[in-house]
Specification:
Number of strands: 7
Number of helices: 7
Structural class: alpha+beta
Number of domains: 1
Radius of gyration: 19 Å
Oligomer: single chain
Shape: globular
């Protein structure tokens, strides 16, 4: 791991026993003889937070490892940490504003907006120099993500983590106002990884001018009374008519 990135371990160990000799031999043979081509390129690393769309009190830290397919599409695998022992907990597809605009109306409800995550400083690319991180995230302004979590391993939402992935996948959502994400969850991540979202927020102020109103910003507004909007994060329903 890049020494500039602090380790963030999974909050739990899965059910099951340790690796036997046969599994160690299989892993060694696989490394020598097999090709993991589809996994190559998942090397863009960002960490943020998700909540369940239908149960927003269920909140998780999400470590994304993404492959840039093209200028309009990223594919990400999501873990609950950044060490070798981290658990795979979900997937996310990220599309540009342009591609989102091609989706049918009934599909758009699955895709959450990203502007708050970027402009608030909550979404961070650990290890990247500030200028490179800002340039990358500038490409994600106005984008949308479709995220499914298959495993709730827990950390701060009051629920114990599950030792195995249980039940149906959960459609996840983004936070879109200050005060929606659990403060303990944020403090724990930031302290453990040495992250400074407030500094990131200041660095990204120049991106506010390129932020368009997005679909889904107000979806969970009534579930988080007292949450505070941030500049640049506006729901399309609140934006008013577009002037030519």
């Amino acid at each position: 791991m890049n020494p500039a990135i602090r380790e963030r371990r999974s909050p739990l160990s899965p059910a099951g026993e340790g690796k036997g000799a046969w599994l160690a031999a299989l892993e060694l043979g696989a490394r020598l003889l097999q090709d993991t081509t589809p996994l190559k390129g998942f090397d863009v690393y960002v960490v943020g937070f998700h909540c369940a769309r239908d149960e927003p009190g269920m909140q998780m830290e999400a470590h994304h490892y993404c492959r840039v397919v093209n200028d309009d599409l990223l594919q990400c695998v999501i873990f609950d940490g950044n060490t070798r022992e981290a658990n795979l907990i979900g997937i996310e597809y990220i599309v540009s504003e342009r591609l989102f605009g091609t989706l049918p109306d009934d599909e758009r409800g699955y895709w959450h907006p990203h502007n708050f995550e970027i402009l608030s400083g909550q979404l961070i690319a650990p290890g990247l120099p500030d200028a490179a991180e800002k340039a990358f995230l500038a490409r994600l302004v106005n984008s949308y993500g479709k995220t499914w979590h298959t495993w709730h391993t827990g950390r701060h939402d009051g629920r114990p983590g599950d030792a195995l992935p249980l039940g149906e996948p959960a459609l996840m959502w983004s936070f879109n106002r200050e005060g929606e994400c659990d403060e303990a969850l944020k403090r724990d991540r930031d302290a453990a990884m040495g992250l400074d979202p407030e500094r990131k927020r200041e660095q990204r102020r120049s991106l506010i001018g390129s932020a368009d109103p997005q679909v889904g910003v107000d979806l969970l507004r009534d579930r988080f009374p007292g949450a505070v909007p941030v500049p640049g994060v506006v729901d399309v329903a609140d934006a008013g008519p577009v002037t030519p």
